[in-house]
Design brief:
Length: 99
């Protein structure tokens, strides 16, 4: 039995009814056989604070765990030239800093 490819989906918009979240939900439904898309909600991820680097908030620990467990990451962000959304950018910093 093959293990499905684990894709972590993250929407760069926190608004529940955003097009980004809708696109992510559609991608979840359309994931091909042999792939699984797990959506992680960035709500509750605080801005990066170096003081918390050694003891990150539980939500940041959960995000880090999800990123490490994923085979691939799908970021769906608002259109803004040429950088990712502020939400994704601050979360990425929080999640990639050392545990």
């Amino acid at each position: 039995m093959n293990t499905p490819i684990a894709i972590l989906g993250i929407a760069g918009s926190l608004r529940q009814a955003s097009y980004n979240r809708a696109a992510l939900r559609a991608a979840e439904r359309l994931a091909p056989e042999g792939a699984r898309l797990d959506i992680f909600d960035l709500a509750g991820i605080p801005p990066f604070n170096q003081d918390d680097e050694k003891n990150p908030p539980p939500r940041v620990v959960e995000l880090k765990r999800s990123i490490r467990a994923a085979d691939a990451i799908l970021l769906v962000t608002p259109s803004a030239p040429p950088a990712p959304s502020t939400t994704c950018a601050r979360s990425s910093c929080s999640s990639t800093c050392t545990p």
